[in-house]
């Protein structure tokens, strides 16, 4: 296991996420330099350029630091797995759900201290139709929420942006009919929302399942049966904390492989807030796929 002391790192950062954090970033990078960590800063124009930069430098790098929100970090998942490089997270997004799953509070100064400390853990990766994701993939209502969660909404609503997007999405969602295979067991159901989680958190601190960890080797699925807005609102506290087990309006499962078809009608799938594919969908998990700089992951002790 490589230590961060006297190592070379590539910093990939989303310039849109940097606003208001320049002083903290500069101070943190100075502290990394004092600790013997040489950082190359990449002025990337987009995910493709960032991924190629990692491939071009993979033999000389010890670490990749990604600064941004969950979408920016998720866009680097595949290349980090491909190149077998450790990941450090600088939480600069609206939700920072991966940071939550890694036990990070979201404070930028703390994130730099974690990098300097050099403690490492191995986490899983979710895969849907050959697309990698850290947190959660959605069909139905979750996709509509992502579509409503524009940069403008994030800018003006801040931490309340997910709530704003949720209520806007409710007016657009329609039920879907799905056939599922969950580790070989078959189900048919109607749903307005399906979520398949690799990580613990999604949507600004919602918990996909209270038993889920990002290193447990399982995917956690829940599906909401069609219901009224009032029923959804009464269910919301349970969904927020991942305590929806045994509720008759929610189907729950944990598995290593999940296959979903939606008949003749294809459904969009978003993962970590970004559009990635559509049904039919084949979900799987890669155990201990990526090494991350993070404190030890304890059961249900990840900060809100």
UniProtKB/TrEMBL annotation:
Xref: SMART domains: DAGKc (SM00046)
Keywords: ATP-binding, Kinase, Lipid biosynthesis, Lipid metabolism, Magnesium, Metal-binding, Nucleotide-binding, Phospholipid biosynthesis, Phospholipid metabolism, Transferase
Annotated DAGKc domain residues: 4-131
Coiled coil: none
PROSITE patterns: DAGK
GO molecular function annotation: kinase activity
E.C. number(s) listed in UniProt: 2.7.1.-
UniProt xrefs under InterPro entries: ATP-NAD_kinase_N, Diacylglycerol/lipid_kinase, Diacylglycerol_kinase_cat_dom, Lipid_Phosphate_FormReg, NAD/diacylglycerol_kinase_sf, YegS/DAGK_C
Co-factor requirement: Mg(2+)
PANTHER family, per database record: LIPID KINASE YEGS (PTHR12358:SF106), SPHINGOSINE KINASE (PTHR12358)
NCBIfam families: PRK13057.1 (NF009604), YegS/Rv2252/BmrU family lipid kinase (TIGR00147)
UniProt-recorded name of the protein: Lipid kinase
